[in-house]
Amino acid sequence: MSNTQLQEVADAVLPVITEEELARYRREDGARVIQHAGHYWEEVGAPGFFQPVNLLAPLTPEEATRPTPLSWGYRAALAPQDAGAANGSVPIVRLKDLASYDIGSLSPNRRNKLRKCWRLVRIEQLTSSELLVEQGHELVLEALARTGHRRPPSKEEFVTEVRRYLEGGYGCMLAGLVDGRLGGFLTGYAVDGVAYGLNAYYATWALPTNISTGLIFEFAQLCRRSGRVRTLVGGLHAPESPQLSQFKDDMGFVVDRIPSRWNMHALARAFIRWRRPHAYYRLTGQA
Fold this sequence. Notes:
Elements: E1 6-8, E2 16-17, H1 19-28, E3 33-36, E4 39-43, E5 49-52, E6 73-77, E7 88-95, H2 108-120, E8 122-126, H3 130-147, H4 155-168, E9 171-178, E10 181-191, E11 194-202, H5 211-226, E12 231-236, H6 242-250, E13 253-264, H7 266-275, H8 277-284
Parallel strand pairs: 2-10, 5-6, 11-12
Antiparallel strand pairs: 1-8, 3-4, 4-5, 6-13, 7-12, 7-13, 8-9, 9-10, 10-11
Helix pairs in contact: 2-5, 3-4, 7-8
InterPro entries: Acyl_CoA_acyltransferase
Protein name: BioF2-like acetyltransferase domain-containing protein
């Protein structure tokens, strides 16, 4: 394996981009992105539902409105001073205090697991796609068969996605190697001071090394060292997954409900609340 595609994690770089830059990248990824009330919104999930490309962009109540007459629903976070105008929340999981985050922020059990990972796993920043092209697709298929997180991509889709992400220059990809073999990888990006852990995949054989603990910890350290990230978001709250919730709690994450404005067509709202109550909670912050 060529070392030219790897960079020591201590020297890793996380670009912090603007909302406009993120909107351009999302368009290049094939997302439908529109402008409304001074912000960029993207269509997510079912066609016709929109949210800001930067999910936690603090909008005013005047900005947090239906982005297009054809949309059946939308949600947007509000600025703290406008919390009184909220009719819901965005239930995120974030690090409690990124600025002081270190090994002491973890639970005692998780600290031991991090030390084990440091002994067994070499964590690097990927700067080119060769390693993932060679070993990544099989790893992703195995991980998705275990988690059901998303539809498994074809090899062509995966390679295109990886190359576009790495060549786009708007995010960061960390890889964990065990004896030179890819054991897992994590992608993340930062926009206007907020970092988002995007996707993480781990090989089953690598899980005993606690690679997930190491990759998330090192991504958090990368965010902290940047000096330009104030918040690290580790996804949306998933109370139906107690094991995942416990893992994030051990890692020092807390649940934070960001005030929001949202709206849905009445029939869509009733259907989602009935058939997918957990998704409804993540969209609206309501049970």
